[in-house]
Amino acid sequence: MTRRRVVTGSVLLALLVGAVVWAVWPESKAYTAEERMITVRSGPGGDEPVDLDTTFYLPKEAGPGRKVPAVLLAHGFGGTKRTVRTDAEDLAGIGYAVLTFTARGFGRSGGQIHLDHPDYEVRDAQRLLDWLAARPEIRTDAAGDPRVGVVGGSYGGGLALLLAAQDKRVDAIVPMITWNDLARAFLPESTGGQPVNGVLKKGWAGLFFGSGSAGPGGIGGFGNLGTPEPPGVDPGAAGGGAGAPPSPAPTGSPAPGVRPPSPAPPASPGATAPPGRVVPPGNRGVDPQCGRFAREVCEAYLQIGATGRGTEEAVALLRRSSPAGVLDRIKAPTLLIQGAADTLFPLAEADANARGIAANGTPVRVAWFTGGHDGGSGPDSDRDRLKYLTAQWLGHYVKGEGPEPDRSFTWSRIAGFNALDRGLVATGYSTADYPGLAGRATQGVIVGGQPQSIANPPAGNPAAISSLPMAQGLSSLLDGIAGDLAGQHARFDSQPLDRPVDVVGAPTVTIRAASPTGEAVLFVKLYDVDPQGGSTLSSGLIAPVRLTGLPTDIAQARPITVTLPAIVQRVEAGNRLRVVVATADQGFATPSEPAVYTVGLGDGNTATVALPTVPGDPIATPGVLWRWVLFGLLVAIAVGLALVLLVVRRRHRRTDTSVTPEYADTPLVVRNLRKEYADGFVAVSHVDFTVDRGQVVGLLGPNGAGKTTTLRVLMGLTQPSAGEIYVFGRRLVPGSPVLSRIGALVEGPGFLPHLSGLENLRSYWRATGRSLEDAHFEEALEIAGLGESVHRKIKTYSHGMKQRLAIAQAMLGLPELLVLDEPTDGLDPPQIAEMRRVLKRYATGGRAVLVSSHLLAEVEQTCTHAVVVNKGAIVASGPVAELVGESPSVHLDVSDVEAAQRVLERLAGVRTTATEGGTGLVVDIDGRQRSEVVAELVHAGIAVDRVMPRRRLEDAFLALVGESSRGSGDR
């Protein structure tokens, strides 16, 4: 099963990588590129000539005997044919003839900018289709009908839609980050109002007008979405559109209307250059006020820009250049790609296009990505996904290869940073079909707050900065620097979310407003606020509204539903939502008259923010598949190890099904234990000892003697090389059920730091599978002596506190054998003294204790028996009193120390030394009987209160191990 998953994951990875490479990786020098000025005739009568600067990319294998399909590739506003050069090379590398061109009014091309007017830019593109149909290398469906797809971003995307509606020869289109209704895009109104009452996007409008009047600086492209060319540079004038000298023209007669590039196209009739201005060759003779814009377009902008309000005429002009009115005429299969980081043409524009085209049965697929006019082309995973989708779409509908693409909806969101290059990483998702901006389901989050008064500043200054056109992520840094201004916005917050929400679509919220003038322009924003107070406005997207007929009193205001811009964002659990209603924004035109508005929520002091969600499946990427392959390998390794362990356990259990009768009542028996490591080091060579009921046995030895290794083998943490261990007559192996009768503290305590001491004990006990009644928590906590600290989190504990809790954990369930490794480590003297009493009490009622310690004085006072290990072997074992043995000196507590010294000094060979405090003597009796020494003192009238042998366990220990106590560490 695991092997099959690994193989499947590897195959999927290979297929995906192969598909992406096939789709986007052109062969080196697999095409030629020729530059031409093509004269086309357009205009309302179809007879006005204009020169278009073009580059034609042709696969080397193409020719009259091997015709290839074509792609007409359009650039973004303000760009030129060079803006899309890389994309043209990619498409040419996978077998398409690609014609790129600089649109009229830009670069070296002649004519004026009419904003994708059906009679001008769209008719120009139709004449380019004629040119392609006349080329002998281009596959045709009929005479004059080339097999062609149209691809473009932003301005070029609008052209693709309008061209497909106007010319049925187009076989497929891929419009990206483009518009549906140009009037609504530049004059949005988020309560459903018409563009004539919309709020002007003055930032974007000014950038558009400047791009058209001052020269190149493209807005939008294919692979370089939203990446402009450097302002003030005329790429078209430089020649070499493919980055190399122009290829010679194909042999044979040139196509009609084609001529070599000219240094500069003729100036527009009647136009003059502004005084003192250097004009690029293609811009010579521009209007001093309107640049290369057509007069009607220029006048519409000047009028709207001056008033900040739309007019019926201006709206009609913009809608003439909008796909919205001709979607029912589009029959070419359409792949719509739109960016979530786009304050110019937000996701709602693609949504309107998708619904309008699909309503007539035309195949439509929608893909959202993390970039856009404000976010660029997104991370690598996004770019690869979009290129693959484009190649797949064109491959089927233009090349006629591959199965029909499905209509699934794909989207992505930023998931974090790449650990290697710190670049952004996007995670993609898909679902069977496009759900629209309302999503599949809606989750409601309640925000609350009292109505608030907010001021509209005179002339809209100062104003908040929610986004900067084409800022490529800079907008995310604005909050707290140039974000919402005090006194000009109202805030309404939710409670922290109890679970995360993945928003995919356009949220909605209801508000109320009152104005002394009866009107108000407001900007509604939705923030994601983390527990530390940091707020995020997704891609700087805001909802402008222009409200009329407002009451002066908020109590009389009616609820108004605001549809916020569609977003793709994960709101984490614990974060709050914040609805902000502001009066002025740098990107929009606002009323110049100062006023104070009152704003509130739609349901009084609360409102529900409706968050659309779309369940989806993660899209496999090379990185994701590699993670699954690695995961599969890890699973395979884990399963293999588990099988080995299972076999070993079964083998042990097969040989350990009985109880050895002679050891059945003995807590611990160790016989001939040996542990040798793979490098040849022998940690334990020969160890034998027994722990009987009622005993407290001390395991002693210098560093490196083998104490810890012995305990590790005892607890089943490592396998012995030889020998056997019996616990109550059952042979001990890793995982043996008899281990449940042992409580242990070996190699220090280990707890979960985010839990309290009591929670750690309970979690440990639950893991054993036994009932809480059997745990004896009260006795364990009494032993630990932590008091109320047992309710504190472990991360606040000192080492000594952790040690005491670990001992209590070992005693849970009152096991019959307790094994402790350095139990007094980290304890203070009173706690050590209490530990002595605890261990002595514990070894009653048939229980036993094995203690490993380096504190010999503690072992002497605590243990009944001791086992001394040196160099991996036992050098002594038995009762502590026997190990200490007879002492050559004796300690005496007497009533008069000085008198006792005078009496004993008369005895030959006897030497005395007074102890600290002056109440006792240490007497070297020189082989005499202790009774003789005591008798001499009593006869002299000196009272003897206590007689103790002077030799200590430490003396015996040093005599047994010698200098080996200077070992280099246990193993």
UniProtKB/TrEMBL annotation:
Pfam family, one: PepX_C
InterPro entries (UniProt xref): AAA+_ATPase (IPR003593), AB_hydrolase_fold (IPR029058), ABC_transporter-like_ATP-bd (IPR003439), ABC_transporter-like_CS (IPR017871), Galactose-bd-like_sf (IPR008979), P-loop_NTPase (IPR027417), Xaa-Pro-like_dom (IPR000383), Xaa-Pro_dipept_C (IPR013736)
Biased composition, class Low complexity, residue ranges: 269-287
Skewed-composition ranges (Pro residues): 245-268
Residue stretches making up the ABC transporter domain: 668-896
Region annotation (Disordered) ranges: 220-287
A GO molecular-function descriptor: ATP binding
PROSITE patterns reported in the protein's UniProt record: ABC_TRANSPORTER_1, ABC_TRANSPORTER_2
Residue ranges crossing the lipid bilayer per the database entry: 625-648
Hydrolase is among the record's keywords: yes
Keywords of the record: ATP-binding, Hydrolase, Membrane, Nucleotide-binding, Transmembrane, Transmembrane helix, Transport
Name by which UniProt lists this protein: ABC-2 type transport system ATP-binding protein
Natural source organism: Micromonospora pattaloongensis
